[in-house]
Design goal:
- By secondary structure, the chain is α+β, with helices and mostly antiparallel strands.
- The chain has a single domain (2-57, 66-97), classed as Alpha-Beta Plaits.
- Helices cover 24% and strands 43% of the residues.
- Strands 2-3-1-4 form a four-stranded antiparallel sheet, with helices on one face.
Length: 98
């Protein structure tokens, strides 16, 4: 079954405005979402808060960037995007083949 899994590198921008959750708590939530689509997290890198090059919202000029490496089935990226679409703590998500 492991031959059907692929390696992915995902970049997330987190939005913790007005929330009492720490960044670590939000990262744990993202890991749970990856596990829900049958993924296994291999590495997490917190790149810290960065300003956006182009702001779409004046109230949100910067976000916390994280990168997560994981292995999952080929259908996982689409399922992960669908699950995170409703998650208000994840502002943007980009999943690429590693």
């Amino acid at each position: 079954m492991s031959q059907n899994k692929r390696n992915y590198k995902a970049s997330f921008i987190l939005d913790n405005r007005g929330k009492e959750d720490s960044v670590e708590t939000i990262i744990e939530g993202v890991k749970k979402e990856i596990a829900a689509v049958q993924g296994e997290v291999t590495a997490v890198e917190n790149n810290g808060r960065r300003d956006f090059a182009r702001k779409t919202d004046d109230q949100f000029p910067s976000g916390v960037y994280i990168q997560v490496n994981f292995t999952a089935p080929a259908s996982a990226p689409a399922q992960l995007h669908e699950r995170l679409r409703l998650n208000q703590t994840v502002y943007r998500a980009l999943v690429e083949n590693a």
